[in-house]
Amino acid sequence: MEQTEYVVTEELAGQRLDRALTHMRPDLSRTRAQQVIRAGEVRVDGKPVKSSLVLEAGQRVTLSAEAHSAPTAHLPEPEALPLSILYEDEAIIVLDKPAGQVVHPAPGHERGTLVNALLAHVPGLAESGEAARPGIVHRLDKDTSGLLIIAKTPAAHTRLTRQMSEHTMIKRYLALVEGHLPNDEGVIDAPIGRDQTHRQRMGIVVPARGGREARTRFRVLRELPHRSLVELQLETGRTHQIRVHLAALHHPVVGDLTYGRAQSPMPPRHFLHAAHLEFSHPITGEWLSFDSPLPDDLARFLAALDA
């Protein structure tokens, strides 16, 4: 696998190296980032460093080939599960994830995940990305449906995660939110980090306490009684970013019981769907674009509101 180099952007300047590395490589957990830094597989301006190093704009972060290889332990078991594949070639898969499916194994969800299904579909996938989440370039929450891209080879994984870190990959979502937003379009710019009180949740957190820059562009598509259908485009990719940002505006996603509250009528899950994806093919460079219509459960709920 090739060595990979990233240039520290203004957005990442001031961040610890281990935190910044999870932004450069969204497939890496912070624990894994600290492991490879400690092993000397990450260098900044050619020098070995510690996880606590505070980065400056313009510095060059280099990951060795070994840094891309996760420990071989805990490789998920392949399972012959259905996959809704929209496109596949020798390097990538674009698929439509159903609501209710977890992307990769985690405590309480060791089987039945998308990764289990992918390992059965692509036997060599274990070589791409982290062992616990091979092939995964970006993620969707369990109850969020829609488009995901999977890297089938290490080279494709490296180049796609670079597109993620450089924000050249375009991802748009559809959400139904509570109430009517004050503007028809705009940008939500608020740092996101682990909630200081409820550690299982994310929240708006100042950078000094670990918050990372987060921006979400929104456009109101339609207003309904007491609710609005909104298109959202991620300019960064933080955990629960759309849900946290909309809740911070006091317009949470309808059905989101983590960041909002129950209000009648309620959809069968939170109303959030990854509807559009654009990116450069990691091998050919061809610009690819995909769309996913609202799944039946959300389309029926929306139609009932219009009735």
Q: Would you kindly provide a written description of the structure presented here, covering whatever features stand out?
A:
The protein is an alpha+beta fold and 307 residues long. 18% of the residues lie in helices and 28% in strands. It contains 6 helices and 17 strands. The protein has helices spanning 17-24, 30-38, 114-121, 154-165, 241-248, 296-306; strands at 4-7, 42-44, 47-48, 60-63, 85-88, 92-97, 129-130, 133-134, 145-151, 170-178, 185-189, 192-194, 202-204, 215-224, 227-234, 272-280, 287-291. Helix 1 crosses helix 2.
Q: Ranges with pLDDT <50 over ≥5 residues?
A: none
* SS strand fraction: 25-35%
The CA-CA distance between the termini, in Å, is 55 Å
| Computed Rg | 19 Å
Write the layout of secondary structure elements.
Layout: E1 4-7, H1 17-24, H2 30-38, E2 42-44, E3 47-48, E4 60-63, E5 85-88, E6 92-97, H3 114-121, E7 129-130, E8 133-134, E9 145-151, H4 154-165, E10 170-178, E11 185-189, E12 192-194, E13 202-204, E14 215-224, E15 227-234, H5 241-248, E16 272-280, E17 287-291, H6 296-306
Parallel strand pairs: 9-16
Antiparallel strand pairs: 1-4, 2-3, 2-4, 5-6, 6-9, 7-8, 10-15, 10-16, 11-14, 12-13, 14-15, 16-17
Helix pairs in contact: 1-2
Task: Name the features.
17 strands, alpha+beta, 307 residues
Task: Provide a concise account of the structure shown.
This protein is α+β, with helices and mostly antiparallel strands and 307 residues long. The chain has six helices and 17 strands.
